[in-house]
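Recap from last week: sequence in, structure out.
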Amino acid sequence: MYKDHITTRRQLSSDMYYKYEELYSRPFITPGSDIPENLLNLSHSFGYDCQRRENLQLLDDRTLIFIAGQLIILLDVSTKQQRYLRSCSGGGIGSIGVHPSKDHFAVAEKGNKPLLIVYEYPSLQAYRILRDGTERAFSSVNFNSDGSLLASLGSAPDYMLTVWNWRQEEVMLRCKAISQEVYRVSFSPYNPGLLTSSGSGHIKFWKMANTFTGLKLEGLIGHFGKTAATDIEGYIELPDGKVVSGSNWGNLLLWDGNAIKVELCSKGGQCCHAGVVKPFALEDGQLLTFGSDGVIRGWDFETIVTAEGSCGSSKFEVEPMNELVVGHHVCLSSIVKSSQPDSNVWFAQDSTGAIWKLDLSFKYTTPDPECLFSFHVGPIKGLDVSKKSHLMATTSLDRSVRVFDFLAKTELTCSRFSQGGTALHWAPPVVSQTGSLLVTGFEDGVVRLLELFDPKGVHSYKGGAQLRLKQAFKPHNAPVTAVAYECSGKILATGSSDRTVFFFTVGETYEPIGFVSVPGPVEVLEWSPHSHNDNRLLILCQSGHITEVPCPDPKALKLTKSYELLELPRRSFYFKSVKSRIKREDGIARRQAVKEKRQDEGKEITQEEEGEKKEEELPSIYIPDPPSPLHWGFYSKPGQFWLSMGGFDAGFLYHCKFSDNQDEDPDQRQDEPFDFLVIHNADDDSICSVTFSSNRQLMLCGMHSGSIRVYPLDPDDHSLTSMQAYWELSVHDSIYGHLRNICCSHDDHFVLTAGDDGNIFSFSLLPLEELQKTFQRKRATVPSPRVDLENEELAQDIDDPAANSLEMAKQKLEKDRLCREAERKKSDKRKKLSEIQDMFKKLLKENQELPGHIRLTPTELQLDPRFAELAEIEKAGKLKEVQDQMSWEEEHSRIALNKLQKWFNGSPESDVLTVFAIHTGHKVSTYNIPELSSVHIQQQCRSTESSGKETAQGERRKSKDQPVKGSSEIDEEDVPHTLVTHSSGVKLADRQIERLQKAAEKAKQAQAKIEKRKQEWDKLYAEKPKKNCEDPRDVQAICEAKENIGDLKLKTDKDFTVPKHLRMSADRKKAEIKDLEDNIREKQTEMNREIWALRDCKLHLVAKLQVQAQQLQRVQKLLPSHLHRHPPPLPTIRPEEIPDKRQRCSPAILDRYRVLREQRSQCTELKDPEVGLLKQLEEEVEGLEEAEEMGKYSSVAIEEEEEEEPTEEQEAQLSEENKQSKLLHIQDSILEKMERLVHQFDKEHLMCLNKVEKLEWMLKLGNLRQLTLFQELLLLKEVDKNEKTLQEKLNIRLKEENNLMSKLEESQEELELKHKDIAKVQEREKAVSKAFRASLGDDKKFEEYLFKVFKKKIKRIKKKERVGDEENENDSGEDFDDYENWDDDEEDWDTPEGEAAVEECPPDCDPKLFEHILQLRERRLDLEERLAEEKKSADVLERECDTLIKKLKSVQISRKAAEDDLEQVNREKQQQMNQLDVVVPLRLHQIEFDVNGPVPSDMSSALVLTRTELQRLQERVNQLEAEKRQQTEVYSQARQQYTRLVQERKDMSAEIQSLEKLCNQLMMRRFGREVDLEVLQTLSGNRMVEELKQQKLLQEAANAKEIKEWDIKVQKAREVLMRMTRSNTERLLCLNSLFEQKKELEQKLDARQKKIEKQLQDFSRQSDRNEVWRLQELVRKQAQQVEALSREISFLSRKGGHVLLSSHNQLPPLVPWTKPTVQTHTKEAGGLHSNKRDGKAWN
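Predicted structure tokens:
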């Protein structure tokens, strides 16, 4: 199908080629310079990137092709000649692939949009160029089987898989492979439409499918399933479409589709290879594989194709047919076959640095593997050239040092060492005139001096040039990173990453001088050149620290205890990054230059250009952390040097010098360079190494990108001012081929480079023709050996990486010297102390010989008791110190002793005991029961903890279920009572007090009776079930039925639902296994006890038989010999029957061992040399133990037998005949008893053996059950992860549901409490109304008016919590605003027009009653406000409940979905568990097939049941029918009872209604209204009422007396009134006459006034004008007064105080304003009250 796709495209000519000369990358040369393009010409490649994947291909039977940096090398195997193709992009080469016909090969490059070029072979012309295949680099290319298609695979970031029609340079298909690293892609050789790719942790299978939209690439990722995921380095496609791939652990994976069918391993479960394995070919019916173990194996192809996994395992074991071991330290990574037909020759790539030629015919005549080429492995750490010849030496971490003749292009010699090489330096001629000495540093800190020589003429050496170890020493404890000779060749300096530099004197043997410590790992060592006056060493550290020290003088140094040269002066420099500042200043300078240029040209800068400049931000100052690494450095002048930095600071050469202030700490310094040079086109490409030609006219730089950069310089230009133009060529790999080593040959004709990619190149500075003319010789000169070289002994090497360095060795010597000195002093002290002790003992002896009266006492012998005290204190301190030092050893020994005691003297149950029968050969042994493992104990602890947690959770649940006290309870207030005036205390009579007490007692009894009745009713109502309540017995029965009935479908049914309590998890299965193990252990322990008891019985029996045998011997001594009967053989106790005594060790045994050892040491010849000391002791101990054991039990037997033996007196009394018959009887009875005892023991032994056999049968069943449980556990563990995830999801949903339920319940409870609070408020509101009616009493005079006052709605100020003084200050203003707004609500709050305001107490009304009514109104309004608030909060709670109900429904839906998912997982788990086989041992007679007819051959559909279970099911059918009948009868009875109860309820309701009606009639008849009978019963005599009654009588008597007195006074007042009336009448008459006179005078006055009006008319006009002016002035002053009052009012409303403004004069008083009263007949008190209200309103 894809061929049709090819033909539809345009056709390119088959003879079209590209010119290689126009394609390959050329060196970059600075424009305008006169540097020639062919400055450096490639001479040879000495390396091989052996760690690159598939870096070996075969073009023909003798030409190999591989990648080396930027080159493709075509190597002739026979002649070892090389041909080269350069990369066209200059970025490197990613992969190569060879056409099946070997006439083309593809080169996939690296770089930005790299090319894929197909070259023709052998012409090496560029045939086709494929573009846009990937973004950065190709990782793999491969042709299909017929060569028509090419597949390419890109690396990061796009990982693009492309299928090319390469002959037409067209893309057929393209698709992203995957988002991780891909190693390889290939076509199937059997199906051209299939591809396979593999890489990091994956394999993918591709198919070119023809869809309705065209040809597509469809990929399926491989699923590892139960097999661990692995990186797949290699694979091979099989003819049937399957794929065999390798793995990291060495087994093969057989893929069928996109899943692993089986994992192939070797016999016994061993891996096919050790390490990574790769299949690579199908040859002669076998699959060939190779691995990183250096072995090639052939496997039977048919066996692999038909492999199937065994039951319970995905592995398939297969044995290799053939095997070839290439080498023991070989790691094969790729292999290619020779192009010759029927050839078995293969070429293999070895990742350890070799190319092998292999013959895989697997015959007896097959030649051994041949190593064709050997190379370095990994980065080249050291490279240097001889100063006398064209020789080059290299070293790397592969532990080898190699010497090359780069003139002859050959490797001369190779030496291997115990550690990898890290530094190399060829000694200059001033050190070695022949140029034969090499100094090499290794990663263990060892420095080796190697001598190169030509062994011709030396008899003990054969072959070519060789390296000989001259001296080895270890100055460092870390890898040696730099080696340098002083200019005169007298001092050698070595630097290391351990931050030290060591100095040695140069001579026949190198002697250490000392070392200096530096702040960081040493990177470069640079001695000052001859031009400098002082001989100094520049030490450049990787951390950016530079230290300069003078050359140490060995003669001037003093010997110390250490090699460290502390007195050696030094100067320090710590590089500070300035790159960001340089770029910033450069940007500022460029802006300034543009601005000046504009100004010079007379142009003005527009606003747009100014805005663009502002948008271009200048680089910010940045200091890298951690600091950039230092790569290289060299002197320019004394005290000045150049530095090349990596990382952020790359792109510059920094000129630095040491500052004068050297007192600062080197780690705290911050030094900046004083000058710099820009390295063009190298902002991210640092200089890693620098070298100069011998005449300093060329500066050669090795770049981080793997390229060579050459700068022509002026001679003696140490300031590098002429460093401008340069020549650059990409050589090594641009990604990991950092060029860290570059050198010029001694004659400056060659340049040698070595990079981190393992490649080594030689370049000639002359063209090839001139080079051939210059060098007539074809080989370099190898130094001749020294005189008497073969007579010298080989130098001692340091092979141990842990060997002491020179400093450590010196410190050790010094420590040993100090120890010896201390030991010498100790011995001298001991000797002196011994002499003093001898002298003291002599004095003591002489003191004892003296008479007692002159003898000194011990106290007197003490010079001073404080000496003894000090000695004791010192002794206690030392003792404690020793105890502290030995505490660890003591604890260690104690634990070891406890373990030994536990092992040897543990419980006897841990020993295996075997009890043998006496007459039969039966034996029975105990079970070896191991102790409980720590895991087992931990599981028990976990189970205990889990039970404790469940208990705690239950308690928490209980505490949570307790009702919460409502927080919204309304504070109870006293119910308002009627207004009662308390009278003064009045004493009651004794009779009245007695009557009150009786009434109170009666009321108390009634109250108790009522309370008791309430409690009974509450109890009855509490027992009353709710409307939807169900019978608990029915609920329990339903739950029991649900648990027991379950799902009636079989477990094999797909829709079978596992009950929750029967769902199995890994933890439950572990608990089940633990219970089974505990049960097995318990049974074994119980049986062990019986066997031990049987052993004790046998010991007792043997002891008893021995006693009876002794009795028998005594009896037979008294009988004639012909009457003797042979006793039965006595049983013996075998060692297996007393294992508890086997390891016992007593003091007697130890003493015996000591005696035997002394005898053995004294005896020169042993009688039996084969019997050892311990064996002899063991035999004796067994005899002693057996005798001891028998003695223990024989004492008991002797006591029992003593009772039966006849005494001597009884024997003496018997006659001779009676005595003989008696003895015969005793003999017979003893023998019979012995036989009976033996028979009885054998019988008990046989019973015990039967029990053991039965237990063995049970244990076998238990083991089978345990095996099944383990299989189920493994299955459950696989499913447990997904189930746990779903369970956690379900738990989260349940938790959410529970939270919502609890919140909903709390909200409903709060809502219910709110409703109760609302009801309480309404009840209290009713109580307030009742109190109002009760306060009115029977007086209905002011009822209507007071009811209006009580029901009036008034504007109330809301109660606010006032916090702080500021709020208090604002209250008056707020109140004022509230009162201002009252006018808006006049219609709602004011009374109608014409009605009097209901705020004043009417006349003749009690003011206290009126005030009480106002208080009741306030309380009513408070209750109404509270009721409104409660209803509002209730509405909020109702809305919250509705929201919670909606959320709860959605959560319930999610929970149901999670339950369904979990149920599906449980079903799948049950189906998988159904696949497990359960072993049930049965006999044939136990099997019955419960059908009519013969037993079918296929019984897979049959249900297996035990006979007991079948009988139980049959009986259960009958039981269910009986239960069904019983339940039907119960239902009918319950139905009848329900009907009867409903009828009784109706009757009771009717009776209750009639009784209530009768009760109400009786109350109306007696009380005139319905009353509360409970209140009536609890009424008792009120002392206050009685006192008021008594006070009423007394007040009535006093009032009658007062009325009589007032009647007398009224009579007297009437008489006085009559007299006053007469007098007033006379006065009225006189007043009348005076009025008449007044009238006459007024008439006269009017007449006279008319006359005077005309006279005053002119005068009135002037006065009017004066009055108008006065009134205007008054109005102005009043306006000022109004304004002042307004300000004062405003001020007082804010501050609350009165302030009289001093700026205003006192104004004339205004006419007072009086508010008209509403009601003129109000009393004085009422009037005052009204005026107060009006005043408040005004204010």
